[in-house]
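Table 4 source record.
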Amino acid sequence: MAAGGVRVNGKVARASRILARKELVEVEFPEGDRARRLGPPARDLPPIRIVHEDDHLLVLDKPAGLVVHPAPGHWDDTLVHLLAARGTALSGGAPGRPGIVHRLDRDTSGLMIIAKTDLAHRRLGSALAARQVKRAYAALAWGHFDRDRFSIEAPIGRHPADRKRMTVRADGRAARTNIEVVARFAGCDLARAELESGRTHQIRVHLAHAGHPVVGDPVYGQGGARRISGPGRSAAERLERETPRQALHAAELWFRHPASGTPLALRSEWPPDLHVALRLAGLPAGVDPAFGLAYLGFFRYSSDG
């Protein structure tokens, strides 16, 4: 479309073009796709921390602000480019997504599994589909949940008016998120969210659907600090100002190694760019936010299961 290869009724169409019934759409495909070289990234990117690595896979701690794989607007500045420049062997995977077993949103930080071999990729993909990979996210959510433990089960699909957003809709794909309240602060709760499915933006959409959007979420925030009334409003507004992105972090991961079957339990503490947010939310003054999740009893998994 950017190259003028899409026409509607004989005229070059823009991406914003809304189609009407019976309009003629013509697409001219180039002679073979241009191969995109996975070389060094085109710009400086934030560093990644390797949590575990062997001949079959690696688990890394992705920083916020880093796109996972090439896509429009990010053809040469992604996590995949960083790994390629590092010399990491990557499995085949989907076109343009070598090694990517599962994804994180650009502004969500935390643990990700990368497959180095095709066998590891297939087995990890099968384990994900069978819900044998346990993923737990830490999220600051506005307001207070009615219960300490519950599940949100609601189908997710594309928003009918904004294709970049997701929403709960009857014809969407089945999705389930298990929620446990880890800490209750003045204007928000720290929740542990475990995925039983892996839909796009799932935790953010489900928490917003439940009336408790993620603090700092620019898309699904539903008013953010304005949702808080009374004497806590000013503190909530400060929390919102000091939260640079959605306060969502993939903090814990458990799965069996695709080659040996050995259980792996991996952890990532609350990220540095959200330390101030956790402190303002209500973490006790004497506790270092770098150990905030452990202090609050967030972590559950061990290599024993």
